[in-house]
Amino acid sequence: MNDIESQTKDEAARLVTELQERICHRASAVERSVAAAGGPDAASFAIDAWKNEGATNSIGGYGSTRVIAGGSAFEKGGVNTSIVTGRSLPPSVVAQRPELAGHGFFAAGVSVVLHPGNPNAPTAHCNYRYFEAQAPDGSRSAWWFGGGADLTPFYPVLEDVRHFHGTLRDACDRHDPRFYPAFKAWCDRYFFLKHRGETRGVGGIFYDYLDAGGFGESGERVRFEEEKSASAMLAFMRDAGEAFVDAYFPIVERRAREPFGEPERSFQLLRRGRYVEFNLIYDRGTHFGLQSGGRTESILMSLPPLVRWTYDARPEPGSREAALQAYLTPHDWFKDDPFAP
Amino acid sequence: MNDIESQTKDEAARLVTELQERICHRASAVERSVAAAGGPDAASFAIDAWKNEGATNSIGGYGSTRVIAGGSAFEKGGVNTSIVTGRSLPPSVVAQRPELAGHGFFAAGVSVVLHPGNPNAPTAHCNYRYFEAQAPDGSRSAWWFGGGADLTPFYPVLEDVRHFHGTLRDACDRHDPRFYPAFKAWCDRYFFLKHRGETRGVGGIFYDYLDAGGFGESGERVRFEEEKSASAMLAFMRDAGEAFVDAYFPIVERRAREPFGEPERSFQLLRRGRYVEFNLIYDRGTHFGLQSGGRTESILMSLPPLVRWTYDARPEPGSREAALQAYLTPHDWFKDDPFAP
User: How many angstroms separate the CA of residue B157 from the nearest CA in chain A?
Assistant: First the structure.
């Protein structure tokens, strides 16, 4: 297979690397700030660069897994990039884009999961990626962007949830007023644990198959009036990636200094179990990665450091722990406090 | 749908309840024995009986979830029964038995997972079940048994592995000399974590679609020369269930008294992560239960109490922890020690 000629490809590869750098830089600053405020010593990211590993149907690629562990703010976290070329698009993509069966692909993505140690600070995830499909004759047959960011608090604070969503909404609105409402609803649908009847957290944004003509999966596709360029989409990816930084880290910086005790820690470990359940039972990216022979340790870096499962654990009615449940269902966070008495 | 008339149905329901009683009784005795030897106080099983809950396509049923937590020997465990009647066989069964599409079913099963607190004592699982399919005209269209038992040590002892397999083998051999070799191999294939390239533990036995004519899935079915009766199969289920008790509990009783420290505990929590990965990513029973709206807390009682994930953790070469890896691949445990230098 010849290399796909595409400026967008090079720019996307550069962008995911820049976003990784930006995110690690800011996370490290939060580490130092929380440590200076009296936490344990600040941890730094270890870099695990790899080359030509990955999916069994891949021709080659490179990336780096940057991990942090035992930090002052972050008990565990990973900020990964992956830039790979493959012989054929995975079944999960072909199911939604049957016309691309047998086409090769290029993918460049950055993937982030951060688990703070302090239960007052939420866990967060983001992932931004660019895909190209290549027809058997070597031409580029399709391209699209996907991604999203979501927040999983243990002791949610409405002000924080509004800050997180507001920052992502502002970034979306700068590009298209239809983005935030559509991507917010998509996020609520995607990060849902059917067997628990609850969302993973308070959501954020989620989107896929965003290209010149519109976005969304075949059945429910939104079409733009005028085609947008790949560079406009790249600009959105950059903006959404930077918005994650501004949406998430100020929350950790504030909440990771708050005092907590054993009951809060115990509740955090229990709720982290839900995070594991979502990632291992439902998450398409995790399943595709593991089933196709991806790099297991990079894929499973998303799992929390320490997790607890207790049979039929139920918070005391009226407790701070019981208050979480009202947040685990889709809400318009900008309306009046839906939880006011 | 009329009730299925069948003596086997009543006998299977009685048997799973008896096995539950037997297993809890023996586990409680081990609890007391380990506590008397200087452990923390012995815990006892809490009984959570339920009725008419369960799968969305079920007509009704009953069962009980018996759980133990924070014990001297058992940090967490569950011994569950479930006796249910359903409107239509689940897709996972119909995929293997297409002639039964749309048929109703009756199922009686007992399911056990025990997680000792001491890393020297292995985790264990067993499940024995009886299924009946009912044609639209109300007649019994098929019946079969399924089940198995497997052992997941953290610090394996070859003598223990031989005792576990030997006890199960003896029970199998009393019924059919083909059972143990076939069921042992099936267990090695089933409890395999593809993304880790390792078995869940040291195996045991696993079988399904065991009926009058033979056993195995459509493609690789072993046929008996002469048909066996349902009562012969019930006798095997009873024997296999009792063999689990004799295979597992003496190991816990011995190993749960051995001293251990923080490094062993830490390795146990890490390895428990593999147990979670298997159950949430691969286990058919877990997936079917959760996706069909089963009783979530009873299904997920199999998950360990406390679990750790660390990026790319690798035991020191030559350490006791590194020694486990050689056990996580299929072996004939009765041959000379495959790990002798």
Answer: 27
Nearest beta carbon to residue A309 from set B290, B303, B312: B303
* Tokens (6 digits) for B38: 């200087």
Q: Are B173 and B179 in contact (CB under 8 A)?
A: yes
Q: Could you tell me which residues of chain A have a Cβ less than 8 Å from any Cβ in chain B?
A: 48, 65, 67, 69, 76, 78, 194-196, 269, 273, 276-277, 280-281, 287, 290-291, 293, 296-297, 299-301, 303-312
CA within 13 Å, CB half, A17: 11
Burial label, B11 (beta-carbon count in 10 A; 0-12, 13-18, 19+): middle
SS3 helix, strand, coil % of chain B, rounded to 5? 40, 25, 35
Cβ-Cβ contacts under 8 Å for A150 (sequence gap 6 or more): A124, A125, A126, A187, A191, A200, A201, A202, A203, A204, A205, A206
CA distance B65 to B126: 15
Q: Give the count of beta carbons closer than 10 Å to the beta carbon of residue A282.
A: 18
Set A25, A103, A115, A125: catalytic member: A125
pLDDT tens string, chain A, 341 residues long: the values are 344 457 999 999 999 999 999 999 999 999 999 999 886 788 999 999 988 765 555 667 899 999 999 999 999 999 999 998 888 887 778 888 889 999 998 999 999 999 999 999 999 999 999 999 999 888 899 999 999 999 999 999 999 999 999 999 999 999 999 999 999 999 999 999 999 999 999 999 999 999 999 999 877 899 999 999 999 999 999 999 999 999 999 999 999 999 999 999 999 999 999 999 999 999 988 887 776 667 889 899 999 999 999 999 999 999 999 999 999 999 999 997 877 76
Residues in chain A with CB shorter than 8 Å from the CB of B314 are: none
Give dist(CA A260, CA A258) in Å, integer. 7
The token pair that represents A16 in the structure block: 């995911």
Q: Please name every residue paired with B146 in a beta bridge, in sequence order, or none if there are none.
A: B129
Q: Specify the pLDDT at position B291.
A: 66
Total count of residues recorded for chain B: 341
What predicted TM-score, i.e. pTM, was given to this entire model? 0.94
Q: Where do we find the tokens 């690789």?
A: B220
ipTM exceeding the 0.90 mark: yes
Element (H, E) at B290: helix B284-291
**Is the CB of A76 less than 8 angstroms away from the CB of B304?**
no
Active site residue B115: no
CB contact under 8 A, B309 and A312: no
Dihedral over Cα of B232, B237, B238, B242: its sign: positive
Cα B86 to Cα B54: distance, rounded to the nearest angstrom: 10
Distance from CA of B10 to the nearest CA of A (A): 29
Whether the CB-CB separation of A228 and A212 falls below 8 Å is answered with: yes
Which tokens is B87 given? 């409107």
B310 closest CB neighbour out of A273, A305, A307: A305
* Closest alpha carbon to A103 in A115, A126, A86: A86
